[in-house]
Amino acid sequence: MTEEQYDAIIIGAGFSGVYQLIQLRRLGLKCKVVETGSDLGGTWYWNRYPGARVDSDIPSYELSFPELWKGWSWTQKFPNWQELQSYFAYVGDKMDLRKDCRFDTTVKSANWDDQLHVWHVTGEGKDSIYKASARYLVSCTGFASKPYTPGYKGLDTFKGLATHTARWPVACETAGKRIGVVGTGASGVQVIQSLGPHAKHLTVFQRAPNTALPMRPYAINKQIQDHYRPVYEQLFEKLTNTFSGLAYDLIYQPMMKDTPEQRQAVFEELWDLGGFHFWLANYLDIFKDQACNDEAYAFWRKKVCERIKDPVKRELLAPEVQAYPIGCKNPSLEENFYEICDQDNIEIIDVKATPILEVTPTGVKTSGKETDLDILVFATGSILDIDIRGLGGETIKDHWRAKDSVKTYLGVTVDNFPNFFFLYGPQAPTALCNGPSCAEVQGAWVVKTIDWLRQRGITKFNPSTQAAQAYKDHV
């Protein structure tokens, strides 16, 4: 089989992959994007579950290239998956990207050749094996390339429909069904509040409560966006300098210098603004001081408890003693999640107290009971499923396991994995950052580094173990 040769291979066609392709092509590199899906979009090619929409507001959640934002207008402040797919289709057409993409192909392995200073990449298509090599390998999957489904005993015996939110079937009738949802992260919250109103019965299998915040979505039009477009360039520049990559920033003055009344007023204002304001425009001290964190949690809990009548559900969804410091895990944005969970047809099972033992042909069995289901939904995130081997044939997993911890340089490279870059991964702003902002800030560093290497004729770039350790100590 002939191996295609490129200057750079980019894994994934989401925001990061699209940004890399545009910028590396501008440097004159011959590039190929390899994408599991059938079109551009990355996560937003796959996220088609009921209620799926982005949790960053517009225009923060788009690429900053003027040739793109000047010709595109959104209809929603928080676009749904359909509109995001339309956006990626527009980007692909406008920038003529698809000619340098190979779709319907999953990268299975990448091996570093220390003699030729190239990466050998193998992918699997629907009915073929794909092989290519490149000087540079850029992973834009966020280290989460494959939907994660827990390996519960008996899952293969379930006679109903078992599906993952990241692989939602095109035709799926949910009205009047008995539905189980495993997981209460972002996708879990959205699918629960969407399916709950018309499900016969919906069981939530919750490991930890989600400190979800009010989204407060609303429609927008071209006229509104045209009014603000003259300041878009300044806005996108601002996004590169805020804590979260959003158009607002944390309050850096000491929280306790404000009076209790002033602090409550700040909380109320941020709550009313909606979105991530209560999380990422709040006092920095909430992330640093337990007393400040407790006060923010008490405010959040009071707001949520006002919306839940059932005392048992209230304690499960908003416990008096917080399960983890608020803000230290990415909260989801919700529209009516707590009201839906309070419905009589919704049951919440704490799987920490009563763990899932197995999946049966008719449902899910925990240590406390057995629940009959027609549909079982896994909202359980994704994992890395690419065999990447650097110097000496060592995998990244083994490399980090040998060091007893994850070590990267700048959250973008790994020692002993030359010419390999990854975006939206560990030891980076990933969990706390707006996706497109992170894609562009990290992506610009990758592009500048590759340009610097090429201008000097350097064919192998390998961060030192000492640099990786120093960066780990720093973060």
Keywords summarizing the entry:
single chain; 475 residues; alpha/beta; FAD/NAD(P)-binding domain; 3 domains; eight-stranded mixed sheet; five-stranded parallel sheet
* Beta-strand percentage range: 15-25%
Number of strands: 20
What's the alpha carbon Rg, rounded to whole Å? Answer: 23 Å
Distance between the termini: 44 Å
Helix content: 25-40%
The average pLDDT score comes to 96
The biggest beta sheet reads: 8 strands, mixed
Secondary-structure content class: alpha/beta
Q: pLDDT below 50 for ≥5 consecutive residues: which ranges?
A: none
Indicate the CATH architecture of the largest domain: 3-Layer(bba) Sandwich
Supply the CATH superfamily name of the largest domain: FAD/NAD(P)-binding domain
Q: Give the total of domains.
A: 3
Shape descriptor reads globular
Q: Output the CATH topology of the largest domain.
A: FAD/NAD(P)-binding domain
Note the total helix count: 15
CATH class of the largest domain: Alpha Beta
What order do the helices and strands come in, and which of them pair?
Elements: E1 4-11, H1 15-26, E2 31-34, H2 43-46, H3 66-69, H4 81-94, E3 101-102, E4 105-113, E5 118-125, E6 129-139, E7 146-147, E8 161-164, E9 178-182, H5 186-195, E10 201-206, E11 213-214, H6 222-228, H7 232-239, H8 260-273, H9 277-280, H10 290-305, H11 311-317, E12 333-334, H12 337-341, E13 346-350, E14 356-360, E15 363-366, E16 370-372, E17 375-378, E18 382-383, E19 387-389, H13 396-402, E20 420-422, H14 435-455, H15 465-474
Parallel strand pairs: 1-2, 1-6, 2-3, 4-19, 6-20, 8-17, 9-10, 9-17, 10-13, 11-12
Antiparallel strand pairs: 4-5, 5-6, 7-18, 14-15, 15-16
Helix pairs in contact: 1-14
